[in-house]
Design goal:
The complex is a heterodimer of chains A (203) and B (221). Helix content of chain A is 71%, strand content 0%. Chain A has helices spanning 2-13, 16-20, 24-29, 34-63, 84-106, 108-114, 118-121, 125-136, 141-169, 181-196. Classes of the chains: A mainly alpha (203), B mainly alpha (221).
């Protein structure tokens, strides 16, 4: 039940885009068409669901204070948490590469539609941000997995909704200075208000 | 993702060693080629830390520092790194610099470190840093790259400080934590809760982009 709660929280209430502004760069850049937004969203769900548990393992068994105790008792006082940034980003970059290679090998059709987005994901703040939140909040492995997938689905929903709105918006008369990024910021703000109404839901 | 939108403006620079050309590296990103409002880079952190001026200032300084030194380092080793592995190399260098910033903050400004939490770490994936490395530092001399890093960093800084100024003054009636309205003798200034919430950031930045683009005459198609 707690896991379900956490899942709902990470999808709707603490949505990566609307509550923490993570992944905004690709959120704004790849939301012009629903079909491309769908591809990117799917890739993000996939990579987040993989990297957050991976980084949890890394954090738990290598980086955390006293995490190295399983090697020998002498290392029980080691605290490598200052290496978190560099290790997490290395895992993410490596995972993205691996995912890209395996998709290319096993499902060329999926690779055709996801392929171009995968390299971009390594530098998507939502991915690194989720791993850092996971480390900061001391999740268990189950929570970390649910949180990873939940954050990914939250991003997926947000980017598809925005892309759909922007497709409609193409036929409206927007003031010159507001075209593109400006109006998108306002739309995102309004969508944020809508998502705020999920606040306080718990099961 | 940031690279394809970026390559055109810098690639055209001539090789003349004029100081005017170099001055442009610093002044261009401040208005005509601003990383946030024109190039749409680095929005994530621009919004997340801007509820108050003080953390925004710390964030701005950190980003300028990381940009200058990552541009310098990448520019120095640009001919040694094979293109296939350049992203990893860039990420490693940026992550090292960000770790440095984070450790310094942890040691000398722990409250600030707690307040900024994960957002210092997220400078690593800040598109401005990666974007400038890809578009500029990989193809230019170290000194020019330092200037470019400084310019883009400052362009980013003034936008986030502007956002923070409006959010703090409307959201909590303060500037840098100083209660301006009380000092002016206005006792019951009612604060706007929307400005403190994430939604306020989007709307304030939307207006800033509108004003800035109207002024510089930039139109997106």
């Amino acid at each position: 039940m707690d896991l379900l709660n956490l899942g709902i929280k990470s999808i709707f209430i603490e949505n990566m885009v609307f509550a923490y502004f993570l992944g905004m760069c690709s959120f704004l850049a790849v939301s012009k068409k629903v079909s491309t937004a769908f591809g990117l969203g799917l890739a993000v769900v996939f990579v987040l669901g993989m990297t957050v548990p991976m980084n949890w393992l890394l954090n738990e068994f290598v980086l955390k204070e006293g995490a190295l105790a399983w090697i020998s008792a002498d290392l029980a006082t080691m605290d490598l948490s200052f290496l978190r940034f560099i290790m997490f980003i290395a895992i993410i970059a490596a995972m993205v590469q691996l995912v890209e290679m395996s998709i290319e090998k096993f499902s060329p059709a999926l690779y055709g539609s996801l392929g171009i987005f995968l390299p971009l994901i390594a530098v998507n703040c939502a991915i690194l941000g989720s791993s850092l939140f996971m480390a900061q909040r001391d999740y268990t492995i189950g929570e970390a997995t649910v949180f990873g997938f939940g954050s990914g689905i939250g991003f997926f929903l947000a980017i598809i909704a925005l892309a759909a709105i922007r497709e409609k918006l193409r036929y409206s008369n927007v003031p010159n200075g507001l075209k593109g990024l400006g109006i998108t910021m306002f739309i995102t703000g309004l969508m944020g208000i809508a998502f705020m109404s999920f606040m306080g839901i718990s099961i | 993702m940031s690279t394809e939108t970026l390559e055109a403006p810098v690639a055209k620079q001539k090789e003349a060693m004029l100081s005017k050309r170099r001055r442009k590296f610093v002044t261009d990103p401040l208005s005509d080629d601003n990383p946030i409002t024109i190039q749409v880079l680095g929005i994530c952190s621009a919004l997340a830390v801007t509820t108050q001026m003080q953390p925004t200032m710390v964030m701005a300084i950190s980003v300028v520092f990381v940009m200058i030194f990552s541009n310098l380092t990448i520019s120095l080793i640009r001919n040694l790194v094979p293109t296939r592995v350049r992203i990893i190399v860039q990420l490693a260098i940026v992550a090292t610099l960000v770790t440095l910033v984070s450790e310094v903050l942890k040691a000398y400004a722990f409250d600030m470190y707690k307040e900024l939490s994960v957002f210092i770490g997220l400078i690593i994936t800040n598109c401005i840093v990666m974007g400038r490395l890809e578009a500029f530092a990989l193809a230019n001399k170290p000194y020019d790259s330092v200037l470019d890093g400084l310019g883009s960093g400052l362009g980013y800084s003034w936008i986030i400080l502007a956002v923070a100024f409006f959010r703090e003054i409307w959201g909590s009636g303060k500037v840098f934590g100083y209660p301006v309205f009380e000092a002016m003798g206005i006792e019951n200034f009612s604060t706007n809760g929307l400005m403190v919430s994430p939604v306020g950031a989007f709307i304030v930045l939307g207006f800033i982009i509108w004003v800035q683009r109207t002024k510089s005459g930039y139109v997106e198609h």
